[in-house]
Design a protein that fits this description.
By secondary structure, the protein is an alpha/beta fold. It is built from 11 helices and 7 strands. The chain starts with a helix and ends in a 6-residue tail after the last helix. This is KR domain protein.
Length: 267
């Protein structure tokens, strides 16, 4: 796997915490040059220091995905500074814990802007600059919730479903031109995603879901993402037995699945 990443630029959005933070650590061990992007540049610099990243082998850039109209400028600026990357990992995002009827429009927009529009616009801006010049691999962190509509996650699921549709279409259009897409579907992973998730009024929950606390280790998730990219997998589900069973049931016995999901423990 190291040969795939060695001395190549890997861009990681949402790099200051959770899966993104672990991706930075593991990609650097694979001898990649890593671009760390998020709103929290101080946290990114601190992470680079903790990981002992060498000068010239990493870069820190501010990226606010919610301000999705700015992501095109981010992409163009970074290509000018660092060249065309080999891998772009669209990881940045925010989750939700609220009933649809209790979720206001501002919260819905914030989640869609951050999770979908930011990644879509950044990618759209890159396409003219990379086609015919270098093959680029996009790894897109969707979610099992991007395949299953779960209670308390209507806006989050919508944003993750949207990523799937956008990048599946891009793949069908441009894979022959050198753009490769890996769609990643994590289930419950041990991160702070539930603590940072938005309630219906836009405030953070500040609490850890029991299913997240009992989820898969973030180290395993990051390893499987990088492995899937290096091995040119188009799809990878990184989840526990319950989530995988849910995906199977939805496909094979949808009526039974929809009855079960109404009573599923998702917090």
């Amino acid at each position: 796997m190291s040969e795939f990443y060695q001395d190549e630029w890997v861009w990681i959005t949402g790099a200051s915490s959770g899966i993104g933070k672990e991706l930075v650590a593991q990609a650097s061990k694979q001898k990649a040059k890593v671009l760390l992007a998020s709103r929290k540049t101080k946290d990114l610099e601190a992470l680079a220091k903790v990981l002992h990243l060498e000068k010239g082998r990493y870069a820190v850039e501010k990226l606010d995905l919610e301000d999705y109209k700015s992501t095109a400028g981010f992409a163009k600026r970074c290509i000018q500074k660092y060249g065309i990357p080999k891998v772009v990992i669209h990881n940045g995002g925010i989750s939700q814990r609220s009933l649809t009827k209790e979720t206001n429009l501002v919260t819905l927009e914030k989640i869609m802007h951050t999770n979908f529009y930011g990644a879509a616009e950044m990618t759209r801006a890159m396409i003219p600059q990379i086609l015919g010049k270098k093959d680029v691999h996009f790894a897109v962190i969707s979610s099992v919730a991007g395949k299953i509509g779960s209670p308390l996650r209507s806006a989050y699921s919508a944003s993750k479903f949207a990523l799937v549709g956008f990048f599946h279409s891009l793949r069908s259009e441009e894979e022959k031109s050198g753009i490769f897409v890996t769609m990643v579907y994590p289930g419950f992973i041990q991160t702070n995603i539930s603590k940072n998730a938005l309630q219906g009024d836009g405030s953070s929950t500040g609490t850890m879901d029991s299913v997240i606390a009992a989820g898969l280790p973030v180290q395993l998730c990051a390893h499987r993402i990088l492995h899937a990219v290096a091995n040119k997998q188009r799809e990878v589900v990184i989840a526990g037995i319950k989530e995988k069973f849910g995906l199977f049931l939805q496909m094979v016995y949808p009526s039974l699945f929809f009855k079960m999901i109404q009573n599923a423990k998702v917090r």
